[in-house]
Amino acid sequence: MIQRIQSLFMLLLVLINIIVIIANDSDPSSSFQESYFGYFKIYLQDYFFSEILSILFFINILLFKYPNVQLNVLRFITALLVFGIINLFDERSVLDSFKDPGLLYFIISFILIFMTFKSIKKDQAIIKSSNRLR
Question: Which class for 73: exposed (0-12), middle (13-18), buried (19 or more C-beta within 10 A)?
Answer without folding.
Answer: middle
